[in-house]
Amino acid sequence: MVAFLNDPFTWTGSLLRGWLEGLGLTPDLVTFLLQVLGALILGTALLMLTFILIWAERKIVARIQDRLGPNRVGPFGVFQTIADLLKLVTKELITPTGADIIPYNLAPLLAVMAVVGIWAVIPLAPTLIGAHINIGVLYIVAVGAIGTLGIMVAGMSSNNKYALLGAFRTVAMMVSYAVPMMIALLIPVLLSGSMDMETIVEAQSPIAFIILAPIAALIFFISSLAEVGRAPFDLTEAESEIVAGFHIEYSGLKFGMFFVGEFLHAFTISALTATLFLGGWRGPWAELYPLLGLFYFIIKTSIVYFVVIWIRGSFPRIRIDHTNNLNWKLITPLALASLIFTAIAEKVATEYGINRLGIHVGANVFLFMITLAMIRLNARAARSRVKANSVNKTVAASSGSSPGS
Predict the structure, then answer these.
(1) Nearest residue to 378 (alpha-carbon basis) of 315, 327, 340, 329
(2) Cα dist. 7→18, 170, 291 in Å?
(3) pLDDT at 191 exceeding the cut of 70
């Protein structure tokens, strides 16, 4: 009992392994069966978690917007998501005429598989991780790209112009914001000296990377929001422009799979932010009691997810040209500068024995001040252009209405 309370994950794994080996199975087969069982448990838990995420988001956004939110089905409306699922299941699955059947049906699966696959390398606790991969960061980038593929497949196979336009718009934004996101991902790799997610978490002792690289953490968070298509980057849901976007021709359970993928993806970026910049499962006594580490991980991820919901309920949708300008004129150059400053600060701290925390914080403050100055200069230039255009229009109007013109 003491061993179970100290580390229930290792204790349960050892118990199952001993039971399977007692049946006469080979060690390799036992390992394979345990991995399959772990994948099934993880996938099922994530899909079940979606019910809670949808309900929580609807209640929080309703609170922000001075509404009640779900309040009919069950206490506090907790069973509203189940009722919505039953409605989707009973709806007819309509396939549009002229659609490419195989890719059309494959796209919703890709959207969900890409999100669930990312969790395989996220350390949930000191002794709880799906797969030990020494290139975990690269794996996250590669598997995350499958979601982009699913969106493109959905748009191109639906035989609908709005779906195709929505897919083009979504993929263009996702590819654009993938650049600063991947640059920001390099900073935890640089600070920890490894692409292994477990090593990155362990390297954040005693200082989390959000303190050493706050600008990189902010860039990663904003870029991830754009990757997921959450507000204020929810251009895929611009009803007045592209109706329902790339999944306009999907109904019933297939539409529900895209819906699940979207909510689960938002929670996944929260988990990645908590792992890469907030220390993941690290906390007091987490190494002694791994279950406590899982609790810390859930708390940190939930806080980040609350910020995602808060932004959705507070900010309006950004225009697509403003979205591109924000990325290419501010976030991407800032990500490159942050990477360079972090590399220089880490080298100086290592070579000359200067306080690591002080030099990294100083570098980020310096970069922040430079960024503010450049934003101010650009704002002044924009105001000057607007004022000059206004004067020119006034002069042109007055000269056009003058006598003898």
Answers:
(1) 329
(2) 17, 43, 7
(3) yes
